[in-house]
């Protein structure tokens, strides 16, 4: 977890696959620990074709059954179905500039500045708006808390505490 914090969390990512990966992993994390998802990330990447939206969008019932039998990932049918649904919605969103530009359009004007974890939020006006907008475009498992975690993880704003060595980097 320290390595993830120090080298990845809160850093910008780029490209459709990177955004789809983070969105998918955040959805799978719902109700679980983030360390569980990180420990399974390589298997998720393999199972979901490195988050190539075109490939995952073409998954059918046989693929769902294959994924449900894969003990290396989280085997939750609703989350697997959501991952496929979200890949299809990602492909459709290309007509409007793509997933990356869409998500970046909800960046807050100012990053929050907390002194300790007790102050940290789990949602924001921007994450609520992003959640609603993604749902309107056919995405699933994209609630406001999940979208807030996504926004933190991919560096849409700096999520690090004031005084953290990663703040502002």
Largest sheet: none
- Element string (H = helix, E = strand): HHHHHHHHH
Average pLDDT figure: 93
Oligomer: single chain
Terminus-to-terminus distance: 18 Å
Rg, Å, rounded: 16 Å
The total beta strand count reads: 0
Counted by DSSP, the helix tally is 9
Based on secondary structure, the structural category is: mainly alpha
Helix content: 40-55%
Low-confidence segments, given as residue ranges, are none
Q: Proportion of β residues?
A: under 5%
The geometry reads as globular
Write a structural description:
With 169 residues, the protein is an all-alpha fold. 54% of the residues lie in helices and 0% in strands. It has 9 helices and no strands. It has helices at 2-7, 16-29, 34-47, 53-57, 61-68, 77-93, 99-104, 125-136, 144-153. The longest helix is centred in the middle third of the chain and has 17 residues, at 77-93. The two termini are 18 Å apart. The relative contact order is 0.17.
What's this model, at a glance?
The chain has helices at 2-7, 16-29, 34-47, 53-57, 61-68, 77-93, 99-104, 125-136, 144-153. It has 169 residues and is mainly alpha-helical.
Considering the chains and any ligands shown, give keywords for the structure.
single chain; 169 residues; mainly alpha; 9 helices; 54% helix
How are the elements arranged and paired?
Layout lengths: L1 H6 L8 H14 L4 H14 L5 H5 L3 H8 L8 H17 L5 H6 L20 H12 L7 H10 L16
């Amino acid at each position: 977890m320290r390595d993830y914090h120090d080298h990845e969390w809160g850093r910008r990512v780029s490209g459709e696959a990177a955004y789809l990966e983070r969105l998918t992993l955040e959805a799978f994390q719902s109700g679980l620990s983030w360390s569980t998802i990180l420990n399974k990330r390589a298997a998720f990447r393999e199972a979901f074709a490195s988050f190539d939206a075109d490939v995952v969008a073409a998954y059918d019932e046989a693929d769902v059954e294959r994924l449900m039998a894969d003990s290396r990932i989280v085997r939750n049918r609703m989350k697997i179905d959501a991952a496929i649904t979200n890949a299809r919605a990602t492909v459709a969103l290309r007509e409007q500039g793509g997933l990356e530009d869409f998500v970046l359009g909800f960046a807050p004007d100012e990053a929050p500045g907390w002194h300790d974890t007790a102050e940290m939020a789990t949602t924001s006006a921007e994450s609520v708006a992003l959640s609603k907008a993604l749902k309107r475009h056919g995405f699933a498992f994209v609630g406001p808390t999940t979208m807030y975690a996504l926004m933190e993880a991919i560096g849409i704003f700096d999520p690090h505490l004031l005084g953290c060595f990663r703040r502002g980097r």
